[in-house]
Amino acid sequence: MAKLLLFLTLIPLLPFLCTSFSPENPSSRRALVLLDDLALKSSHSDFFKSLQSRGFDLDFKLADDPKIALQRYGQYLYDGLILFCPTTERFGGSVDLAAILDFVDSGHDLIVVADTNASDLIREIATECGVDFDEDAAAMVVDHTSYAVSETEGDHTLIASDDFIKADVILGGKKIEAPVLFQGIGHSLNPANTLVLKVLSASPSAYSANPKTKLANPPSLTGSAISLVSILQARNNARILISGSLNMFSNRFFKSGVQKAGSSIKHEKSGNEQFLTELSKWVFHERGHLKAVNVRHNNAGEADEPAMYRISDDLEYSVEIYEWSGTSWEPYVADDVQVQFYMMSPYVLKNLSTDKKGHYFTAFKVPDVYGVFQFKVEYQRLGYTSLSLSKQIPVRPYRHNEYERFIPAAYPYYGAAFSMMAGFFIFTGVHLYNK
After folding, report:
1. Taking the domains of the chain in order of start, what are their residue ranges?
2. What is the DSSP string of 232-301?
3. What integer pLDDT is reported at residue 404 of this predicted model?
4. How many other CB atoms sit within 10 Å of the CB of residue 365?
5. 10 pLDDT above the threshold of 80
6. Assign residue 355 a region: left if phi > 0, alpha if psi is -120 to 50, beta otherwise?
7. Which CATH architecture has domain 289-396?
C-alpha cells in the first residue's frame, strides 16, 4: 500500500524527472527563478522571455516561499537555478547554502545576481564560487570617466562598460557594439580559484565605495581588478554566472540608449540584451557543450578492437566529437585535440587529425614497453566543457615463436661467431701440419 501511494505521488513529477538535463539531452531544461518581489517578473520580463523563447520552462517563486525545493525523492526537479533575490537573508523550504552547493556539485547551472545591500547569504554563495563582493554593504562601483552620459546627471555609478572577455564561445561570434549598462556592486576574483573568469570588467579609473560619503580611506577594490560580471565552469562542467547588478537585467536597461563619457557615439540601445542573452546561452550549455562518441582503437588495417596489443604493433585510434548548437549536435572542428598512450607517464602523445566532420583520428606504433596502458584524451579549452576519455589496454611482449629466425640487428654478432669458428679451424690446421 505504501509503495502504491509513493508511485501515485511521483506520477505528476515523471515528465520533469524523465526530461532532466543530461550531456546527451541538453534541450530539455527547467529553471527555478527565486525573486525578492514578484514585481521583478514584469520589470525584468525581457530577459525571462528570451529564455522562454529558447524553450526554457521557468518556475517563478518568492525566495522565502516555504514550499520551494530543489529535489524530491532524491531527484532534482530543476536543471538551472536563477537567484534574483539579492536581499534575501534566508530561503524558504528546504533550500539553503548547502542545498545550492549540492545542486551545482550535481552538475546543474546557477545564476547569482547581487546588488547594493546584498545579503550575507548571497555573499556566501558567491564566495563559495570564488568571488568576493566588496565588504562595504553600501558600496557601489563608481567611475568618473566611463559612465553613461545620456542617462545620468552627475551620477557616476551608472557604468558604461565595454571591456568584454575575448572568447566567441562565451559571448557569441557577433561583436557587441554598444557598451553594457551596469549599476551595482563590484567584486574581485579569488586568486586561489583558477576556474573563475571575468566576463565584464571595470575600467582602470573605476573604484568601489559608498557614493554618498567622502572617501576616508583608499578603496579596497580599484581599476580593472573590479569584475562586474564573472563566470565559472566547475570541474564537473556545471556553469555559474555571478553579477553585481540586478538592474543590469531589467527592461529599462535593455532598451535604454547609451553614450559613454568621452565618446561622441550615441547608441540607441545598450548592449545589455545581446550581452546577457549570449552569456545565458553559454551558462545553460546552449553553446560550448561538447560530447565524444564512438571512441575506437584497432590494429592498422583491421576493424575489430583487440583484447591486447603486442609491442611494436601499428595501431589506429579515433573518436567523434560534437558540439551542441542549441538545437542539434554539430561537428566540432579544432586542431588541438590530443591523445596519450599512457602508462605512469605518456609514452606517446599525438595530435589528432580531423576530417572537419567531427571525426578525429591518428595512427602510431606501440612502444617497445609492455604493461597496462591507457588511451587518454584530456581536452580542456576556454569556454568549452572538458572531455576526459580513457580506455585501458594491455601490451604484451613477443612470444618465443614470434621472433624472426635471424634478426637483422644481430648480423654483426652472427658474423663474429662464425668468423671465430673459421679462425679456430684455420689456426688448428696451420698448427698441426706446419713444421
Report:
1. 10-283, 289-396, 404-435
2. EE-TTS-EEEEES-SGGGSHHHHH--EEBTT---EESS-SHHHHHHHHHHHHTTSSSEEEEEEEEEEETT
3. 76
4. 13
5. no
6. alpha
7. Sandwich (2.60)
For 10-283, CATH gives 3.40.50
Overall residue count recorded for the chain in this entry: 435
With beta carbons less than 8 A apart as the criterion, state whether 135 and 149 touch: no
1 or 196, which is more confident?
196
Q: Determine the Cα–Cα distance for residues 265 and 259; give it in Å rounded to an integer.
A: 6
Element (H, E) at 76: strand 75-76
pLDDT, one tens digit per residue, over 61-92 is 999 999 999 998 889 999 999 999 999 999 99
> 434: Cβ–Cβ under 8 A, 6 or more apart, which residues?
none
CB of 13 closer than 8 Å to CB of 20: no
Question: Using CA atoms, how far apart are residues 338 and 320, in angstroms rounded to an integer?
Answer: 13
Would you say the CATH fold of 289-396 matches that of 10-283?
A: no
Contact 36, 43 (CB under 8 A): no
pLDDT digits (tens, 9 = 90+) for 361-378: 999 999 999 999 999 999
Q: Report the distance separating Cα 406 and Cα 415, nearest Å.
A: 12
Q: For residue 343, which of 393, 389, 383 has the smallest C-alpha distance? A: 393
How far, in Å, CA of 175 to CA of 425, rounded? 89
Q: Which amino acid is at 236?
A: N
Which residues does 319 contact at the CB level (< 8 Å), separation at least 6? 292, 293, 294, 295, 296, 339, 352, 360, 361, 377, 389
Integer Cα distance of 44 and 52 in angstroms: 13
